[in-house]
Backbone:
């Protein structure tokens, strides 16, 4: 019972350790870390180093892949640079396997002692060190778990029935392979399964053939586990995950072919060769694991072009991905404040010009088939968030009054754009199918066409704001609350279906809000020479625009 | 339903009578002829909407650009005889507050005379 308790506790500590390590390392990858990664992946040699380090530290290829997915989705790095990072991270995960072959008992105790001391000193409460200490604790628990499994398995070797069972499994390579696949798919980590297999092999419980098949099966299982996580991913994000699956599968296929040929020949060359290298049972399985990663890398290097073409066909870049990428801002521009501000302005103008398309689905006169408003909101909202972070970074780096003032204006415009995106997407959702509006269809059309006209006019004027155009826009975006109130009052006694009435109430509210937001945007565009005052809101009501 | 416009002279002012639907398909073809009416300084233009059944945002923008052109050339633009649906769009879009709109052609001519 003590034996199983030891192995079970070891597995538990291992899982906690992996999770703690992975979560805390992810938290450590903030914007600054992302900027660093972006710089690092700009060179070929550094891509390899980053991949190896990421795999070695995070100890989960799935985690590295999903960090890459996040970075590619955020536009921080190019997809083509992320593929080799995954390949190298795959090799990087071997570090844990190598370390598991060493007697690290004293090192583990030291690591846990050091981590405990940081807790005693309350450093785990510090915002600065919290995640680093969490990662350290994760690493300590992970290794302690391996140590528990090793010591538990060492006692197991005296248990005859288990030894017999493993030996029986050793005669059925397919069974061992299936066991490895199933467990890795379940725990979503092939190093985990490999380390357990190594501990059992060291205890004399697992023959080489069976252990090797478990390791290969674990490689495939981990790939399958990743595949199950692609459900909601599209475009490049899906391509990255499929790349990882292809990486694992190709390595497993190569190694399976080699080991099957060796097994069929009856020579046992692989085991003999590894024994000649002076490797014990545990080291032999570690070698199989490392060879599997190398085989994966080599196989995919050979098949890179057709595999990438296949991935492009299987998961073409999504609309959200294309729209969700900034077109102008980039981190390199941050060193030149004037250029950086200009790029944000262009990015905002691009997003402003896209606002009328949010209404296309509810417009009779829509010329194009634009993506749905909700898709636009998700994609372009993320560009706005990028702009906000970019502006914060810019303000942090530059303290000149002029830059800060412009940053504040652009930040306000950013906020307004976000509010407009949300209001328009909500309006699209509220109206849904305009045909269901029945007798108020004409009113809804009028609201939508009017708003569309104002959005298009604003986008055009924002590109080259002239005083006369801004004056026209200020007049056009006057307060609509009275008019909308009058429409809502008319609706109350009209015998209209409750559902339609509710939709009209919401639509008029959203129209009113959109016009108000447009007006605020216009006022922010109104950059006049110092000394000249901006007309007070509403002061233009007395005049007619067309009057000479 | 197509869109048509008819140009004429009415008491020294250029009169444009619109009919049908002024939407994205038809607005671009109408924009230049309308703008051309303001080539001469201080031009006076009357737009008769009595036979216009529908106007979309593209049509609204053509009218707005004409108003802008009128202002630039020190001219005058008066709209008249709006059908209820078109009037609703004009009201919601804010045009009724910023453009000169008359009930009928006689009222429009009266406004043009005042602005001359």
Residues:
């Amino acid at each position: 019972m003590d034996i199983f308790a030891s192995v079970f506790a070891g597995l538990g500590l291992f899982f906690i350790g992996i999770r703690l390590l992975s979560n805390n390392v992810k938290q450590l990858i903030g914007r600054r870390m992302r900027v660093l990664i972006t710089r690092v992946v700009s060179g070929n040699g550094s891509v390899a180093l980053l991949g190896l380090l990421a795999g070695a530290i995070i100890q989960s290829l799935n985690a590295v892949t999903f960090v890459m997915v996040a970075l590619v989705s955020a536009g921080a790095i190019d997809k083509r640079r992320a593929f080799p990072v995954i390949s190298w991270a795959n090799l990087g995960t071997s570090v844990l396997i190598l370390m598991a072959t060493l007697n690290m008992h004293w090192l583990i105790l030291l690591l846990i002692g050091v981590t405990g001391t940081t807790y005693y000193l309350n450093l785990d409460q510090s915002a600065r060190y919290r995640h680093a200490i969490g990662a350290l604790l994760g690493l300590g628990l992970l290794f302690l778990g391996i140590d528990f499994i090793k010591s538990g398995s060492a006692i197991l070797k005296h248990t005859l029935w288990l030894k017999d069972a493993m030996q029986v499994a050793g005669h059925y390579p397919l069974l061992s392979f299936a066991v490895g696949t199933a467990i890795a798919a379940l725990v979503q980590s092939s190093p985990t399964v490999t380390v357990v297999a190594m501990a059992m092999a060291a205890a004399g419980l697992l023959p080489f053939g069976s252990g090797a098949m478990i390791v290969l099966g674990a490689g495939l299982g981990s790939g399958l586990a990743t595949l199950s996580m692609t459900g909601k991913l599209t475009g490049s994000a899906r391509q990255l995950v499929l790349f990882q699956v292809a990486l694992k599968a190709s390595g497993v296929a190569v190694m399976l072919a080699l080991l099957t040929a060796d097994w069929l020949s009856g020579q046992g060359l692989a085991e003999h060769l590894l024994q000649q290298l002076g490797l014990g049972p545990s080291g032999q399985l570690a070698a199989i694991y490392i060879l599997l990663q190398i085989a994966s890398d080599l196989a995919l290097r050979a098949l890179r072009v057709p595999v990438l073409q296949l991935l492009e066909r299987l998961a073409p870049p999504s609309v959200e991905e294309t729209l969700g990428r900034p077109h102008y801002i980039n981190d390199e521009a941050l060193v030149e404040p004037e250029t950086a501000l200009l790029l944000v302005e262009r990015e905002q103008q691009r997003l402003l010009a896209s606002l009328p398309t949010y209404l296309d689905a509810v417009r009779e006169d829509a010329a194009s088939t634009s993506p749905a408003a909700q898709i636009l909101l998700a994609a372009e909202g993320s560009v706005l968030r990028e702009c906000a972070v970019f502006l914060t970074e810019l303000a942090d780096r530059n303290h000149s009054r002029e830059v800060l003032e412009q940053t504040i204006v652009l930040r306000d415009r950013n906020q307004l754009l976000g509010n407009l995106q949300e209001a328009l997407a909500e309006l699209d959702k509220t109206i849904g199918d305009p045909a269901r509006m029945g007798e108020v269809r004409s009113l809804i059309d009028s609201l939508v066409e009017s708003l569309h006209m104002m959005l298009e006019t604003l986008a055009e004027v924002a590109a080259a704001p002239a005083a006369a155009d801004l004056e026209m826009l200020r007049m056009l975006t006057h307060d609509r609350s009275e008019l909308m109130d009058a429409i809502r009052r008319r609706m109350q006694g009209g015998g209209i279906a409750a559902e339609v009435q509710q939709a009209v109430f919401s639509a008029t509210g959203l129209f009113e809000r959109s016009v108000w937001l447009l007006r605020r945007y216009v006022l922010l565009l109104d950059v006049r020479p110092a000394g000249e005052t901006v007309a007070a809101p509403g002061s233009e009501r007395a005049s007619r625009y067309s009057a000479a | 339903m197509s869109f048509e416009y008819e140009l004429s002279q009415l008491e020294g002012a250029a009169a444009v009578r619109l009919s049908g639907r002024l939407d994205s398909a038809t607005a671009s073809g109408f924009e230049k002829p309308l703008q051309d009416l303001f080539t001469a300084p201080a031009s006076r233009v009357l737009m008769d909407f009595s036979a216009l059944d529908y106007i979309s945002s593209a049509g609204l923008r053509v009218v707005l650009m004409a108003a802008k052109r009128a202002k630039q050339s020190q001219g005058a633009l008066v709209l008249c005889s709006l059908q209820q649906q078109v009037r609703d769009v004009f009201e919601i879009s804010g045009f009724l507050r910023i453009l000169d709109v008359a009930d009928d052609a006689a009222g429009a001519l009266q406004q043009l005379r005042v602005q001359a």
Remarks:
- Chain A touches chain B at residues 356, 363-365, 367, 442-443, 445-447, 449-450, 452-454, 456-457, 468-469, 472, 475-478, 480, 483, 511, 541, 544-548 (CB under 8 Å).
- DSSP finds 24 helices and no strands in chain A.
